[in-house]
Amino acid sequence: MVYDYLITLKRPDYNVIDIISQLLYLVAFSAFIFFASRTVNLVNMYWLAAFIILVVYVVVKQKKKKEGLAYYTPGLAIAAVTWLIGEHTNWIMFALFAACTLIERELKFKKEVGFSNEEVVFNTLLKKRYEYNAFRNVLIKDGLLTMDFSNNKIVQREIDGEVTNEIEEEFNAFCKTKIENAPAPEQE
User: Fold this and answer.
1) pTM for the whole thing?
2) Tens-of-pLDDT digits for all 188 residues of the chain?
3) Distances from the Cα of 47 to the Cαs of 23, 31, 50, 75, 95, in angstroms?
């Protein structure tokens, strides 16, 4: 789909998500070291998984320091698989780590809102689509995207980057026209 306007929303601070991911790394690393030390084989899956998680952790921390955003997904996925196929299979831990692997990606996914002639689309894991008759008003002002829904719900998000006055006026006029010309919602 081609959008007339694609608004990128500012990313929030992910410190809480990162702390939870790091705690999960610590839990997996500690458990795998414990299991590995209890086996007679010097080389086993738990030593390997613990080593890989440690290496991934170091790489992720360096990437975060360099770029400001990093994903802990690889280590969480390795831990999930190890919980599933290791000697000490634990379905609950597998489910927890697998869910966290998927959730972290979604939570850190760059959020965008696309505005076309027909609809407004929120770029999330499951795209949310709205026709213009779902809104009373949509506008950009002072770096904030404000969406006033017809059902009295208001969504207000900070925009990533600078928006010039000309683009702000053009966008606001575009949305106003689309909302005014939208067909009335169907009554059931």
Assistant:
1) 0.70
2) 688 888 888 887 888 999 999 999 999 999 999 999 887 776 689 999 999 999 999 999 999 999 888 899 999 999 999 999 988 889 999 999 999 999 998 888 888 899 998 999 988 767 889 999 999 999 999 889 999 999 989 999 999 888 888 999 999 999 999 999 888 766 55
3) 19, 10, 5, 14, 21
- Go through the chain and tell me how many residues it has: 188
Domain boundary residue, one of 52, 73, 108: 108
Q: Is residue 49 part of a domain?
A: yes
Indicate whether 6 belongs to any domain.
no
24, 53 in Cβ contact below 8 A? no
DSSP-based three-state secondary structure for 90:
coil
Segments forming the whole domain that contains residue 20: 15-108
Residues 96 and 117 in one domain: no
* C-alpha closest to that of 159 among 110, 90, 100, 89: 110
Note whether residue 62 is domain-resident.
yes
Whether 2 is in a domain gets the answer no
